[in-house]
Amino acid sequence: MHNLGFNARIEDINSMEAWIGTLPSHAIQNVRRPLISTYNLTHFIPLSSIWAGDKYNQSDKFIPESPALLYTLTQGSTPFRLNLHVNDIGHTLIFGPTGSGKSTLLALLVSQAHKYKNAQIFAFDKGQSLLPLTLAVGGKHYDIAGEDETTLSFAPLSQINTAHEQAWAETWVESLLVLQGVEPTPEDRQTIHYAMNLHRESESKSLTDFISNIQDEKLTLALGHYSISGAMGNLLDAQEDTLTLNNFSCFEIEELMNLGDKNLIPVLLYLFHRIEKMLDGRPTFLFLDEAWIMLGHKVFKEKIREWLKVLRKANCAVVLSTQSLSDAANSGILDVLQESCPTKILLPNPNAYNKGSEHHLGPYDYYKQFGLNDTQIKIIVNATPKKEYYYQSPMGTRLFNLALGLVALSFVGARLI
């Protein structure tokens, strides 16, 4: 055998088992043992992976095991389960420069909120970005102060049949006076209360009818702007309210925004009041696009402060979308926004590294105010606009991709022409 090139030796230990082990079907004798056990593999095998989000919604006010709001992609094409709720708080801030994909994200969140049983969705839109989706799912779409001014008119003082409703109506009237430069005195409030008592007993419930009960020229002149004889009468001085709300109501406010605060604020205050009356414990989402308008006005700052503290108990998530972190930082309620909105979604911003001066903060400084570190800011700088988004909450952080196809984009990323 040596001459043929085979190395061989005579077996004298384990010879019988070695020979039997060469025979077919003998699997027990002379089994070769591996040098390393698989137990050693567990000592260095990676036990961590990319955070994929929670499978279910965390809120105990939702039906148990309610699914995540949205499935997206993250690094390595791993699915990322996006939830707005942290425990039972769903308030969310969305920041993104113009053209970064903010409206598409907002529309997708609106569409996915319909998956929850008995959910209510109210959205304030700018630029008709939610119109295709609203029409597709059978929602109510209102173009407030749009070209067709005859289709929608409000009667804010038509439902004051309870003390609570009357108190709101009096506060609303006082807001109108403030917008017209008249700061109500205690005597003015008493006059308004007396006139509202008369109005409550009257069969005619228009704003003009209420003004006729006021015997104060200063107040009647200030309120006249909102009556049928003023510029906003066609919208706020109706005998009957034509606004009807359903499980999905969308309000286009671009034209209304162009009218200025004096005309914008009264309408939005009334719409918000109508929405608040719909809150009965069902899962509710209130989406506010272009929230910089509200953050920049003293009336709305206090309203948002109230919502973020109170609406959680009514199972309502407030989602604020705006272009710049400076809108929130300079609003005067930054502490409330940071404490009450645990979830933040930040869109790509190539200027996020720009630092400001001592007297004028830059984007980098505002990101720092919101608790982001340099690594996170770098992610936002390098992210792809209209494609990638950065999620941040106490549960974790993740850069994700919506991965929308053409069909999905036709609903959430398009406008009807």
Secondary-structure blueprint:
Blueprint: H1 15-20, H2 38-41, E1 70-73, E2 79-82, E3 92-95, H3 102-112, E4 120-125, H4 131-136, E5 140-143, H5 163-179, H6 186-201, H7 207-211, H8 217-223, H9 233-236, E6 248-252, H10 254-257, H11 261-277, E7 284-288, H12 292-295, H13 298-310, E8 316-322, H14 325-329, H15 334-340, E9 343-346, H16 363-369, H17 374-382, E10 388-393, E11 396-401, H18 406-412
Parallel strand pairs: 3-8, 3-9, 4-6, 4-7, 5-6, 7-8
Antiparallel strand pairs: 1-2, 9-10, 10-11
Please tell me about this protein's structure:
- This is Conjugative transfer protein TrbE.
- Pfam families: DUF87, P-loop_TraG.
- Residues 88-340 form the AAA+ ATPase domain.
- The chain is an alpha/beta fold.
- The protein has two domains: 70-152 and 245-412, Rossmann fold (3-Layer(aba) Sandwich); 163-235, no CATH class.
- The protein has 18 helices and eleven strands.
- It has helices at residues 15-20, 38-41, 102-112, 131-136, 163-179, 186-201, 207-211, 217-223, 233-236, 254-257, 261-277, 292-295, 298-310, 325-329, 334-340, 363-369, 374-382, 406-412, and strands spanning 70-73, 79-82, 92-95, 120-125, 140-143, 248-252, 284-288, 316-322, 343-346, 388-393, 396-401.
- The strands form two sheets. A nine-stranded mixed β-sheet has the order 5-6-4-7-8-3-9-10-11.
- A hairpin with a 5-residue loop joins strand 1 and strand 2.
- The chain is elongated and about 130 Å long.
- The termini are far apart.
- The mean pLDDT is 88.
